[in-house]
């Protein structure tokens, strides 16, 4: 993660609630690789799913990649996903 943080702007974007995800992120991110943390309130609720709308990040969408295990989470930007 520390190498990734040196090369990229890493953002933790989870559909989990902050009260659960923040302590886990604190535990796994010993290198402070994540510059930002986004939680469920940053997602869009769409057809029963919390979707991570990458266009809301304020970054050029052609420079954004999402790593996620749930296709529903990135359904708005499937071509940017590595799952």
UniProtKB/TrEMBL annotation:
Subcellular localization: Mitochondrion inner membrane
Keyword line: Mitochondrion, Protein transport, Transit peptide, Translocation, Transport
Coiled-coil region: none
Pfam families: NIF
Listed GO biological process terms: protein transport
InterPro entries xrefs: FCP1_dom, HAD-like_sf, HAD_sf, TIM50
Membrane topology of the entry: Single-pass membrane protein
GO cellular component: TIM23 mitochondrial import inner membrane translocase complex
SUPFAM superfamilies per the UniProt record, alphabetical: HAD-like
Residue span, FCP1 homology domain: 1-83
Entry keyword annotation includes Protein transport: yes
Family as reported in the entry's similarity comment: Belongs to the TIM50 family.
Described purpose of this protein according to its UniProt entry: Essential component of the TIM23 complex, a complex that mediates the translocation of transit peptide-containing proteins across the mitochondrial inner membrane.
Listed name of the protein: Mitochondrial import inner membrane translocase subunit TIM50
Species the sequence originates in: Schistosoma mattheei
Phylogenetic lineage: Eukaryota, Metazoa, Spiralia, Lophotrochozoa, Platyhelminthes
């Amino acid at each position: 993660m520390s190498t990734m943080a040196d090369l990229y702007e890493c953002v933790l974007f989870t559909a989990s609630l902050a009260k659960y995800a923040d302590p886990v992120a604190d535990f796994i991110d010993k290198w402070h690789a994540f510059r930002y943390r986004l939680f469920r309130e940053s997602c869009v609720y769409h057809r029963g799913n919390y979707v991570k709308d990458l266009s809301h990040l304020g970054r050029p969408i052609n420079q954004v990649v999402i790593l996620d295990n749930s296709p529903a989470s990135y359904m708005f930007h499937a071509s940017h996903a590595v799952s």
